[in-house]
Write a structure and sequence with these properties.
11 strands; disordered N terminus; 16% strand; 267 residues; 2-enoyl-CoA Hydratase, Chain A, domain 1; four-stranded mixed β-sheet; 2 domains; globular; 11 helices; alpha/beta; Lyase 2-enoyl-coa Hydratase, Chain  A, domain 2; seven-stranded mixed β-sheet
Length: 267
Amino acid sequence: MSDSEPQEDVRFENLRYEVDGGIAVVTVDRQEALNALNDEVLMELSFAFDMAEADLEVRALVLTGAGRAFVAGADIGALQRLADPFAGREASLAGQDLTNTLAALPIPTIAAINGFALGGGLELAIAADLRVASPNARLGLPEVGLGLIPGYGGTQRLPRLIGQGRALDLIFTGRHVEAEEALAMGLVDRIADDALEGAKELARLTLRKAPIALGLAKEAVVRGLDVTLNQGLEIEADLFGMAATTEDMKEGTSAFLEKRDPEFSGQ
């Protein structure tokens, strides 16, 4: 898809892709399986993320699920058919490719957790930048109860998000966490009666900010997590320098001094 031909409403076999006022809303819709991730869903989600990145009109992405679940996990039947360690490794890498694609998007990404977010579903949610949960959300990593471990990034992203002890608590026990506990431990960032609307409202707040600055701020945070503090400060200084050369910086500072709302162009 070219940048000049944004696609706004697309229906895949297992999901919907819609653009609403600069926000791409991706809805997994495989309700008969509680939106479980199989090979087809992984492929369609990857394509939807690529569409959002290619569309210059899209400045934020919201990911959610249809019906009672966000994503209730990976397809257990497919996992049971894994024949050897190499097949298992390839299955894990396929899921990691998807979560890495989501995590690498240069725009704000928000998971609207409207119900069950278990296993691969939670791993997908924690690959987003932010998470908004409904009061009935249930989150967990039950893989050890199936004789497996989290394989779509959960053993790596979850400790970075909530700390080693809390992460091992969830992984060892496989228990489901309700929304309030998830908020208290930092697993979700907000609770809203309607998770999708709450996520859209949060996304709309980001639309008022400078797009390049948002992307650079995200890059600074993500890259800084994997280096020392001093190295992270160097990254921050480099990216600050890049932001300082943009037209958006000139517009933002001028608008502040002139006491008016800025009109960012993304340049």
